[in-house]
Amino acid sequence: SYVLTQPPSVSVAPGKTARITCGGNNIGSKSVHWYQQKPGQAPVVVIYYDSDRPSGISERFSGSNSGNTATLTISRVEAGHEADYYCQVWDSSSDHPVFGGGTKLTVL
Amino acid sequence: QVQLVESGGGVVQPGRSLRLSCAASGFTFSNYAMHWVRQAPGKGLEWVALISYDGSNKYYADSVKGRFTISRDNSKNTLYLQMNSLRAEDTAVYYCARDNTKWGGGDPFQHWGQGTLVTVSS
Fold it and tell me: How many A×B Cβ pairs under 8 Å?
């Protein structure tokens, strides 16, 4: 089964840029979606198909995907961005979605 | 708008069974594949099961295969998860989520329920 690897935690100062990575074997050949989850809430899509942003999601969120690493970038981070972030792909070999282990973003 | 409401969670002893439901509204339920995704306390998201729009195709995570059964009643706009032989490690919030295709595919999960907590404990 396909495995996605995320760092457990990322810390960033307010106003700086946060980068959260998602590693997988040749992940650049897959489409990656990113979710934000705050405590007690269901996940929300913040980036889909590597770099598209749903309507209503801040332009501070962006994404890229190449080689073995996909990256979610949050610019000008603020306290409201503090959350868990998950990457997700579709594993076509087993016909089901796969989630990364999640990254807790802490705003210092 | 799309609404998914899970129910049926609770405390159950190891080895016992529980059935979760997910009531759908705001869209044509019979046109979409559906998923169950769970999240153990303090842990990450884990996909559990997928059912195609007409119920003809079903897929399961290895961790639940042979114990859990996903089903749907399109006449009632309801998704189910029958969970048998429950274990402590099945303790989690269970979410239903709508796929964007009939069969299950690569689109993101735009629509989730609020989740229902299942606790397996003696």
Answer: 56
Answer whether A95 sits within 8 Å of B104, measured CB to CB. yes
Q: How confident is the prediction along chain B (122 residues), in pLDDT tens digits per residue?
A: 999 999 999 999 999 999 999 999 999 999 999 999 999 999 999 999 999 999 999 999 999 999 999 999 999 999 999 999 999 999 999 999 999 999 998 899 999 999 999 999 99
A96 part of contact set with chain B, CB < 8 Å: yes
Contacts of A89 in chain B (CB under 8 A): 106
What is the distance between the alpha carbons of residues B67 and B58, in angstroms, rounded to a whole number?
A: 13
Residue of B nearest to A5 (CA): B44
Q: Residue A74: name the closest of A50, A47, A101, A43 by CA.
A: A47
